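INFO  loader      accepted 1 record
INFO  loader      residues=191
INFO  predictor   begin
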Amino acid sequence: MIAVVGALGWLVLVVLFGAVVPVVPTGAAVSGAAALAFHEHHPLIIVLVIAAGALGAYLGDLAMYALCRFGGEQLARRLRWLRDEEHLAAVKERLHKTQVPVLLVSRLIPGGRVPVLLAAAFVGLAWRTFVVANAPACALWACVYAGIGVAGGSIFPKPWQGVVAAVALILVVNQTMSWWNRRREARAAAC
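INFO  predictor   done
INFO  writer      dumping C-alpha cells
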C-alpha cells in the first residue's frame, strides 16, 4: 500500500509539473497509471489514480492561472486573437456566462488550456470563479484520460502493453491536434 501511495504522490507531482510546463504529456501519465491500476484488479486504485490526476491538474492550473494573472499580460499582447477587441469581448462574455463549459472544453482539447487561461486572466476572471469552475474540468479530464488507460489495460494482457498503447494513443492525438492547430493558424495568417 505504501508503494501505491508513493506512486500516486508522484503522479500528482508529474501532472502538476506538466500543467505548468505544458510540454510534459500529463494525459499520458494518467492513462499509463490507470492502465497499470487496471491490472491490479482493484477498482479503488483506479479511483485514486483519477483523484491524483485531477488534484495534480487542479493545482497546476491554479499555478498556471496565477502566472497568467501576474505576468501573462505581456504574453497575451503577443497573441493576435487577444488583441482583437471583438474577439476579446466574446471570450469575456463566454467566460462570464459559462465558466465551467469553457474550462471543460479547454481542458479536453490538447493545446486549448493555456490560451483559455491567458484569456481568462486577461479579461480578469475572478479567482473565486476560476477556483470553483476549474474543479469539474480537472475531474472530467482525469476521468477521460484514466478511461483511455483502462481501455488500453483491458485490451492487452500484460500491463506494460496497455501502458505503451495508452501513452502512444495520447501522444498521437496530441501531436495530431497540434499539427491541425498550426495548419489552421497558418491558413488564417495567409488570408
